[in-house]
Write a structure and sequence with these properties.
It is built from 4 helices and 6 strands, in the order βαβαβαβββα. It is an alpha/beta fold. It has a single domain, classed as Aldolase class I (TIM Barrel). A 6-stranded parallel beta sheet has the order 1-2-3-4-5-6. The two termini are 23 Å apart.
């Protein structure tokens, strides 16, 4: 199990406050490559670079993070609102890239990603209308996974 701190353009004060917590990764949104490299080096932590996608121009930004990030996350522009984007845009990303996708992915979408080399963030799909994890949705995911 890995622990991830999700951070949007964190300043030094925030990073100093969390540096001694037991995180395996910092998931960074809205952080340029130079700052990402600085954070990775200073805090000796693995980095998930989150790239928010609305079009192909956004997807190709992954190239700027190849030497810095341990995982590239392609997410929607909606951040925590779980908006969607066209996942076919990721077809231009090399299979060997360590990548993850997020953004309004539903349990029913899982078969569409079979044989794709990526991690899938289903967190929002497993929540009820109040943002709490829903055991029936988790069971549905487990049952579907057993069939794939």
């Amino acid at each position: 199990m890995n622990f991830v701190s999700v951070l949007v353009n964190p300043n030094d004060a925030i990073l100093e406050k969390i540096k001694d917590l037991n995180f395996d990764y910092y998931q960074l949104y809205d952080v340029d490559p130079e700052r990402t490299e600085e954070i990775k080096s200073k805090y000796k932590i693995k980095i998930i670079t989150a790239i928010t996608v609305s079009g192909e121009d956004d997807v190709i930004k992954y190239k700027n993070y190849l030497e810095i990030s341990d995982i590239i996350l392609f997410d929607s522009k909606g951040y925590h609102k779980s908006e969607s984007f066209d996942h076919k845009l990721l077809d231009i990303v090399p299979n060997e890239l360590n990548k993850m996708i997020a953004g309004d992915i539903q349990i029913e979408d899982i078969p569409n990603f079979k044989n794709k080399n990526l991690m899938i963030d289903l967190s929002g799909a497993l929540e009820d209308e109040n943002g709490k994890k829903d055991i029936s949705k988790i069971n549905k995911l487990l049952n579907l996974s057993a069939k794939i």
